[in-house]
Amino acid sequence: MSLSRLSELKRFLQSLDTHPKKSLSQNFLINGLVVEQLINAADISKDDHIVEIGPGPGAVTEQMLNKTQNLTTIELDLNFANSLQKRFPAIKTFEANALEFDYTQLQSPLKVISSLPYSVAADIIKKLIRLHPQITTLTVIIQKEMADTICAQPNNKIYGPFTLECQLFATAQYLFTIPANSFYPAPKIESAAVQLTTKQPEYDLKILPFIYQAFVQRRKMVRKIIGEVEGIPENARAENLTLEQFAKAWLSNNNHKH
């Protein structure tokens, strides 16, 4: 069965007496080439341990089993969780919310692969990038706009606190853009695949609230919010600063308080 074909997917959904649920942000991949590109980008070897979040009908799952049998799926929709367990008894399936799931109970190291539900994609990414060294890479499909934000450089209006939070915990790479008609039902926006390779943060995590605060007034000059900092231009705004400059500003700000 190839669930990345729309006709087969519709038949399969009918057999389970179910349909894509808007409340769960369900948009199923129906482009076999995208499935293949996603799996290739994840660079899976037979000894790798993989977690797939929100596999839904299992279009990616069935292809991934050609690479490794060490696969765990986390699926919130009971219909799909039961179906995956029956069709692929070799894999571990948890009927659970990916945001609340305790990943530490799983093997280490882990690679995550997922077409993430758009409504919770940012929160899931924030949670998983903090799980280094247990989670080594996230190869995920998300809204293109979010992918652009994650991979943005300074001096760009899409560069923001989420960009810097991802930079603190991971190295991001934009993989490829995915047209809306690669999904059923087709979302109103384009999607993209990104890969985040987790790492040990170089800076104190206390800089994060400081960064988010600076972006609340993103048009304001940073020195008006945090004072003068050596090495930071007088007229710089939050979107002009690198993670390193934010770390320097936070340190300087902190030292002045003591």
Characterise this structure.
This protein has 2 domains: 6-198, 3-Layer(aba) Sandwich (Rossmann fold), CATH 3.40.50.150; 207-257, no CATH class. It contains 10 helices and 9 strands. The protein has helices at 6-15, 32-42, 59-64, 78-87, 121-129, 144-150, 161-169, 207-216, 222-226, 243-257, and strands spanning 28-29, 50-53, 71-75, 92-95, 110-115, 135-143, 170-178, 183-184, 191-198. It has a 7-stranded mixed beta sheet, sandwiched between helices. A two-stranded antiparallel sheet has the order 1-8. It is elongated, with a radius of gyration of 20 Å. The N and C termini lie far apart (65 Å).
Sketch the topology as an H/E string, one letter per element.
Answer: HEHEHEHEEHEHHEEEHHH
Dominant shape: elongated
Helix content: 25-40%
Strand content: 15-25%
CATH topology value of the largest domain: Rossmann fold
Low-confidence stretches: none
How many domains in all? 2
Ends: how far apart? 65 Å
User: How many helices?
Assistant: 10
How would you concisely characterize the structure shown here?
By secondary structure, this protein is α/β, with parallel strands linked by helices. 36% of the residues lie in helices and 19% in strands. The protein folds into two domains: 6-198, Rossmann fold (3-Layer(aba) Sandwich), CATH 3.40.50; 207-257, no CATH class.
